[in-house]
Predict the structure.
Amino acid sequence: MHIVFFGPEGSGKGTQAKLLAEATHLPILTSGDLVRDAATNDKGIIGEVCRESLAEGKYVADSEMFVLWKWRLKEEDAKGGWIMDGFPRNVEQAKFLDDKIDKYGYRVEKVFYLNLSEEESYRRLIKRGRTLHDGSTELHDSPERIKNRLAIYKEGEKDVLEYYRQKGVLTEINADQSIEEVHKEIMRHVQ
């Protein structure tokens, strides 16, 4: 099974991905982990781009994300199914993902859209207070960085939703309810 969690930061994608992974034993693949790992460990151009993007509170450009995801999707644990969190964020990324996994003979079967208002997303992120990457003391979830990332997310949200709606794989979940209620709703659609 190949599942994507889509929604604004703070909507609970990571939490719900973990709960679903526990229930299905599928690995979780996240953009955030890829970017933070490259920022911490890659001494080349990709690592530099990731460090700069994190420092500026911006998303990594598609061209670099495509390289990171191309590497990640080739790894052994990604071959038997996965739960994806934080990718795709725009239609170009969604098309890249479809093209890439089509070469491996599978497709995205389910996209869970965790719908949450921008105000609630902002509130949750301010409370979270993450740092940029391992070894950094600079906040990733500063007010300015949060507003910037939410604005960028909003730009691509409608198109991504329409793309997956047309493919017939989109399920919208109200993310403004308890973790347990969101998980129950997701499980109803997975089984």
In short: The beta strands are 2-6, 28-30, 82-85, 110-115, 170-174.
